[in-house]
Amino acid sequence: MPSFSKDDIPNDWRVLLGDYFESTNWKLLEKNLQFALASDSKNIRPEPENFFKALKLTPVSAVKVVILGQDPYHSPGLAQGLAFSIPRNIITNSREFPSSLRNISKALAIEGFGTLPHGDLHHWAKQGVLLLNTALSVKLGAPSSHASLGWKSLIDRLIFTLAIHKPHLVWMLWGGHAQAKLPLIQSGADQLILKSSHPSGLGVYKTDWPFLEPGGKASCCHFSKTNQWLVAHNNSPIQWVEPTQTNLFS
């Protein structure tokens, strides 16, 4: 039977979280997840070993950019433990390919980076982009089903302490759910905060900060602004579109 404990979290992130693991909030989350896994682990996504994949792929010392999602994909075969990311074998023009990734790809193309060849964003994570959902588990077919288990306390503490300890980070806040974390982020020094509507579905065009302009005429330019900020602060820019094999040898 799968288990859940603080030992699943990489040591550098446990150090950052400090005494959080002594709190009643952590003990409640631990109890709730252990019960959920004991009751119905086969219907929980991502698999428990991938709950903290974002933290494993992007160490504290490597974080340059934070993209906040809501909860993992609740459809079969999608959730990987990285916000917005899906397996690379899912064809970009298939029904399974999420609208959020389609619109992210459109924005990248508008900004001159090219289109995503697939939806697997591991290469972002390995460059210092923390792809963090605000709940790290979900029940298949039931969006937000684990939001009340206690993930909020852990993720809020993580966001707050990361902003406090690391100046010059970029935060991409897409949609109201991510933007609700703004007060936590503003506790840190010299953070670049980029806000827009969420890239999924028709919501991409909504609010005063649309992710894409109607008709695909322009984007929010978050990817370009991020790289400009990183270079200005002596960091390497993000390679947003992974080269294809064809490009590598052309």
The total domain count is 1
Shape label: globular
* Low-pLDDT windows of residues: 246-250
Radius of gyration over C-alpha positions, nearest whole angstrom? 18 Å
- Per CATH, the class reads Alpha Beta
Quantity of strands, as a count: 6
Largest sheet: 4 strands, parallel
Instruction: Specify the CATH architecture.
Output: 3-Layer(aba) Sandwich
- Estimated share of beta-strand residues: 5-15%
From the structure above, extract its key features.
disordered C terminus; four-stranded parallel β-sheet; globular; 33% helix; 250 residues; Uracil-DNA Glycosylase, subunit E; alpha/beta; 10 helices; 6 strands
How is the secondary structure organized here?
Elements: H1 11-17, H2 24-40, E1 44-45, H3 53-57, E2 65-69, H4 99-110, H5 122-125, E3 129-133, E4 138-139, H6 151-165, E5 170-174, H7 176-179, H8 182-185, E6 192-196, H9 222-232, H10 245-248
Parallel strand pairs: 2-3, 2-5, 5-6
Antiparallel strand pairs: 1-4
